[in-house]
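Protocol step 4 of 6: structure prediction from sequence.
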Amino acid sequence: MKLLLSSKTYLFIISLLLFIIPFFWLKPGEMDLGGDSSRLYFYDPINYLNNYSLYNILPFGMGLVEPHFYSLPIVILLSGMKSILQSPYLLISVFNSIKLVVAFLAVYGIVKELIDKKYNNKYFSMLREISSVLAGFFYILSPRMIGNWEKALLNHDQVFLNPLVFYLLLKYLLTSNIKYLWFILIITFIFAHNFSWVSAPLIFSFYPLSLLFLFFYVTFIRGKKLPWKGIFAGILLFVGLHSFHLIPSVLSLFDPGSNTNTRVFSREDIVHQLDYFFGVLPFAKVSLNILSLPPVNMLGFTSVMVPLVVILGFLLNRGRNKTMLLTGIFLLIILFLLSAKITDLGVEIYKRLFYIPGFSMFRNFIGQWLFVFSFFYAILFGQALFLVSSRLRQMYAGILYFGIGLVLILGAWPFINGSLVNKTHFQSNNVKIAMVMDPKYKETLAFIRSLPDDSKILTLPFTDPNYQVIHGTNSGAYVGVSTIGYLAGKKDFAGYINIAPFSEIFLKLAKEKDYTSIKRMLSLLNVKYIFYNKDPLVYDTTFPSYPYQHVRTFLPSTQKGYEDFVNKITTKKIYEKGQYGLYETDEQNFLPHFYITNTIITYDNNPKLHPYFESASSFFPYKKTSEARSIFIEEQICKKNFQKRICSKEFSSGPSDLPKIQFEKINPTRYRLKVNGAKDRYVLVFSESFHRNWSLFPAYTEPQQKKTLSNYFDGKVTEGVHSNTFLDESTFSTWGKKAIASYRHFQVNGYANAWVVLPEDVGGRDSYSLVVEMTDQRIFYAGLVVSLQVFIFCMLWGAFLFYRKRLFGIINIIL
């Protein structure tokens, strides 16, 4: 009997039930992988790691430079788990189970700690237990929380990380037990993505307010002295552990021109974010945040249950319980930030907050304050529930608890049975989110991965966002970022968004059926292959609108039309497996990743064109020359120093005067070139998104001669054997060396890199090797070394903390 009443027993039973629930959301073999950032790391974590997590080059489109190393620890962990579990279905289910169980237990532990312990008898202890359990249930099952599980982003892990870290911090500050601090550090390292810039603004909405709450609670309510030495040591260790992603992100923040810098400091961007804020504002309702509307319509009347308990709790409290009062104050602050339109004055205050650097990240305030509001609402609800039930007779308290528990479970039943998780795709014809991967597509990805050359791919059918649609062998489909870049290691253009600044041109040319210009445009973009999925289930009737709504009005409206379109812009089919085909473009005009130009064309940029989607219209299509290796330089660039001479056309040479080059990819951030017959200056073009930190270095170690795989322009450009080597003896060969042609590095073709290389740059030699390197990647290498050292220290420190008694016993025996 005692065992049945043990808190550990019923917590174990509840946790076991919660752990089992996600295994029924999907059928064995199904996967939910879609969304803005996708969850392809569940399906193939090894290739996700090799193509995305290790490098600061985005694996799709033109290869924008963006530090995104934060996913490294979790992807490594998932790789290990996948090797054991084998099945992505099991991996996804286990991960969802961990979210549910840990979130429940953490909120339970927090509420139990916060409830006043002055009532020491068994009855009040039981009320404390049940109130804490129901608070945990309310947190994980409240309507606001259960509506965010489908297409969850990486930062959705804060569902359990927020309460878990809060609980461990609370215990550490109250007990000064260093073990809690160690757990916090290790957890934040494993889930580094939730403590990185990518999780902003969510981390900035939760942790500043939570830390402030803990400070007031521990110092003024519990009367404890804060362990400042431990706190400072923890901060230093946290920074050390997270150096691999924090240092690149911080440097990117202060790098003029970077996306992060623009978003935080640009006043023009702040105006755009304010427009977004006012666009969202009409959807904000204070009442919807206070009420807890369940997705089951017939239970709508129960939405007053939680606010009613909270109000009764405050009426009964009358200010005596300081913890509840403190929690209420913080909840009201968050309610203002979540609702934004509490009076016209509130809107004006919110508007002015946007001019604080970085606050514009809260433009979509409804979603960005949601998790912190739900958390504080749950812990306030738990405290109020205990106070209300403690004033009731035992029978009435039991009825209250049973009624609340029943309403929470019934209200969340669509979530528990999986219908809220495995939804139908937006604007689709009854296509489910969960899909079973087609084995033929898996083989297709393997073939694309094996392609020997370093070139890009156009993915069709084309979408509005950077999305790809793959229908499964069941009634579900994957709709998310292109799998080709993330899993096959070949950059591709899958949608309107990531083909900029050629977005509008491509659609215009397609509508006009100007196939010659389309082929020329694809050449400028280094596109050698067309991947075409002819499955009618990804385009015709199943997805009549999203994600093709805009582009469908320009591109073929049916799969039959797409087949004709593909035949018009390609020369031959090189692979077919079921519905999936790979086609090759016109090799005669194809521009490889590296080439040397022989024609320079200047243009004046039209300021009326959208700088992102339309700006290439200023120079393309240009029909006055048929020379494939022509490059386009903006007049504004021509006004700068050395570029004046470039634009004077004196750099244009005949094809016979151009040196020969051979290039090979070492990894996405590093290339090696072999130059032969460079008798004069030349312009080297690299068809990758322009960034000032793409740098050119003389190669200080000559590579072994490798075989040639492809050649272009009668052997003027050849490709060697490409690889994806993260680290070898040549990785640091350029560190401390001076880059060449730095002041002669400029943008061409609306997006690409170009350098003017002079004979004096290479000591007057006509044959030599060069290294093209993204030097920002070095910051990651340096940060990774620091993180690994601190991680090893933390693991040794943890071993000492948990096994020191045994360790001291062994030492005593030895001595």
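Step 5 (inspection) to follow. The chain is about 45% helix and 10% strand.
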